[in-house]
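Project standup — Tuesday

K.O.: blocked on the structure for the chain from last sprint. Re-posting the sequence here as requested.
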Amino acid sequence: MAALSATRDTKKRQGGSVEIGVASGVTIWQGGMVAINASGDAVPAGSAAAKGKAVGRAAQTVTGGATAGAVTVVADKGIFAYQSNSANPVTRASRGATAYALDDQTVSSLDTLATIAGTVFDADDTGVWIDMRG
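H.V.: unblocked you, prediction finished:
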């Protein structure tokens, strides 16, 4: 394709959330971290089926239907507070580092299931603040 030689109507999305088809028979709980499986369907972060990176926080609780993608979940982008794993804690000293999803509500400093939760924004009495905007 050649470079532009006139104006182009480039479509835009805000990127504050993404709607994803849910894997069949899987329940994703509101507030939990959502990841993608190898087929591109939504699964709870930290599950054996989750691959790659968490894509956001579930806006509602949903259970996948008999067919993958028959039900969708909205995954919100943002900075959210989750629990730190006591065995491999994420602390304030971890700011800027990668945190890993041990399950859909717990982050770890150790890559145990290869699901990246996001970047550590902060840690305080509320929990570990994970930046899931990227």
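K.O.: great, moving the ticket to review. The CA atoms of residues 17 and 76 lie 4 Å apart. The chain is about 0% helix and 40% strand.
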